[in-house]
Design a protein that fits this description.
With 171 residues, the protein is α/β, with parallel strands linked by helices. 35% of the residues lie in helices and 22% in strands. It contains 5 helices and 9 strands; from the N terminus they run E-H-E-H-E-H-E-H-E-H-E-E-E-E. The strands form 2 sheets. A 7-stranded mixed β-sheet has the order 1-2-3-4-5-6-9. Helix 1 runs parallel beside helix 2 and helix 4 packs parallel to helix 5. The chain is globular. The two termini are 28 Å apart.
Length: 171
């Protein structure tokens, strides 16, 4: 709709991973290969919040997509929910400096944030309303300990019955 403004990411969201994920990935990679507007791979990752029925498939799909991103020098938008241990296992198979992009809607705790800052210097943090309940210690780690960019995504702060929308701020 706005080809000069909006640019695509290609990826298989973890919530959409099923038994036919390899066929889906082949189609996604084929489309990405011919689209000159592509700016990244995403939203990819692991989401075990609702169930873990396709956990093994999510892990494999995540690895395939990370490989594609690294091979094509593309940043990633990474979604991880209730799966940080698995994320670290997947990340351990790659050079941490080659993992580039955003941990979109970061939902980890302060320990996760510190570990990500130390081991994955080219990943920034996306923090939305889910993250606000995690406490100030995580933000202290992210903002005080790193030069990584921080992406605040439409985070809501509620005061009484009034909600305030914080616009996207990247620094």
């Amino acid at each position: 709709m706005y080809p000069d403004i909006c640019r695509p990411l290609y990826g298989l969201h973890p919530s959409n991973v099923t038994e036919d994920y390899k066929i889906q990935l082949e189609a996604i990679f084929a489309a990405a290969a011919v689209d000159k507007r592509i700016v990244g791979i995403g939203e990819i990752g692991l989401d075990l919040h609702w169930d873990d029925k396709f956990r093994a498939e999510q892990i494999d799909a995540f690895e395939w997509q990370i490989n594609y991103a690294i091979e094509h020098n593309l940043p990633m938008s990474i979604h991880v929910r209730d799966a940080f241990a698995d994320m670290y296992d997947v990340f351990s198979k790659f050079d941490g400096k080659k993992l580039v992009g955003s941990l979109h809607c970061f939902s980890g705790n302060a320990e996760d944030a510190k570990r990500c800052v130390e081991q994955y210097p080219n990943l920034m943090f996306g923090i939305n309303e889910l993250g606000w309940g995690l406490g100030n210690s995580m933000y202290t780690v992210i903002l005080g300990y790193t030069q990584n960019s921080v992406e605040f995504l439409a985070a809501y702060a509620v005061t009484g019955n009034l909600g305030r929308l914080f616009l996207v701020v990247c620094f």
